[in-house]
Amino acid sequence: MQIYKKNIKMKKKEINKLTKEQSVKEFEKLKKDLFNIRFQKINGQIKNPSKINETKRNIARLKMLMERKNA
């Protein structure tokens, strides 16, 4: 059973193309993914620990985008 879906680094261009609703959905999805990755890490199931940092960076990119669009 594979708990974690493949997480691809989001490019700046891809993030800028997202609408406000899409960015909120993606943000929520990434937060859930990060939660699941942390559980995998605790249970020793994670095969690639760099996914944690990659997911955190994607969350930060989306937050910055949402703040820029709201300002």
Q: Tell me what portion of residues adopts beta-strand conformation.
A: under 5%
Mean pLDDT value: 84
H/E element string?
HHH
Number-wise, the strands total 0
How many helices? 3
- CATH fold-level assignment: Helix Hairpins
> Shape, please?
elongated
Radius of gyration from the alpha-carbon trace, in angstroms: 13 Å
The CATH class: Mainly Alpha
CATH architecture title: Orthogonal Bundle
Structural class: mainly alpha
Largest sheet: none
Q: Helicity range of the residues?
A: over 70%
Give the end-to-end Cα distance, rounded to a whole number of Å.
43 Å
pLDDT under 50 segments (min length 5)? none
Number of domains: 1
What does this structure look like?
This protein is an all-alpha fold. It has a single domain, classed as Helix Hairpins (Orthogonal Bundle), CATH 1.10.287. The chain has helices spanning 12-17, 20-43, 50-70. Helix 2 packs antiparallel against helix 3 (50-70). 11% of the residues are buried. The mean pLDDT is 84.
Task: Name a few traits of the molecule.
Helix Hairpins, 71 residues, elongated, single chain, mainly alpha
Describe the structure concisely.
With 71 residues, the protein is an all-alpha fold.
